[in-house]
Amino acid sequence: MEKKDSKKIIRKEIRAYRAAHTDEQIHSMSLKALNHFLKLPEYKQAKVIYAYMDCKHEVETRDLIRAAWSEGKRVAVPKVTGEEMKFFYITSFENDLEDGYFGIQEPRQKNPAEEEDALLLMPGVAFDEQCHRIGYGGGFYDRFLEVHPGLVTVALAFEFQMKEEVPFETFDIRPSKIVTEERVITR
Questions:
Q1: What angle is formed at CA 152 by the lines to CA 10 and CA 51, rounded to 5 degrees?
Q2: Structural domains in the chain?
Q3: Which of 30, 36, 39 is nearest to 60 (CA)?
Q4: Residue 72, Cβ neighbours under 10 Å: how many?
Q5: What is the torsion angle, in degrees rounded to the nearest 10, for the CA atoms of residue 157, residue 26, residue 85 and residue 37?
Q6: How do residues 17-49 score in pLDDT, each as one tens digit?
């Protein structure tokens, strides 16, 4: 089977798992993952967090962003324009975000984030124990990380997103760690 077809099947499977969970289950599992994440040395040392805005039952990031703000960390979230993704600082969910690409909340492009010394959270559809990642197929994070190779990367995922092995390409950029509601996986 072609890698592209395998990825498509896995994406469909994980979407079904996400849909099968209630909002309450997703929130509870997200809080458990958040507790693991907040203990990471990478998080504790970071002054800047490049976070994603969750949607469609991804690991929730709002509580994580609030925790970072309360610790005096700066937080930036991505905005997609065409094939490009850029990060912009936010200080408020209510004032700094609007609906954007695929209905995902995006920043209003006020304060560009151009820090090279930051912790980037990578979303994804599925992962394996070697930290290979299947994204959503747009390549935004791979392209962004090619240009910003010095960023520390951590992926957030639920255990149901972990597979024994996922198909990958040599150009796919892997996170250095994956944090789930049950554990932290390091490559």
A1: 65
A2: 3-186 (3.40.50.10420)
A3: 30
A4: 7
A5: -50
A6: 999 999 999 999 999 999 999 999 999 999 999
Residue 18 in tokens: 């996400």
pLDDT in tens, 122-163: 999 999 999 999 998 888 999 999 999 999 999 999 999 999
Measuring CA to CA, how many Å separate 144 from each of 87, 116, 127, 149, 150?
Answer: 10, 12, 19, 9, 11
Fill in the amino acid letter for 104. Answer: I
Residue 186 β-bridge partners: 177
Q: Which of 85, 54, 51 is nearest to 69 (CA)?
A: 51
DSSP letter, residue 173: P
Rg of the Cα trace of the chain? 16
Is the whole-model pTM more than 0.90?
yes
Beta bridge partners of 99: 105
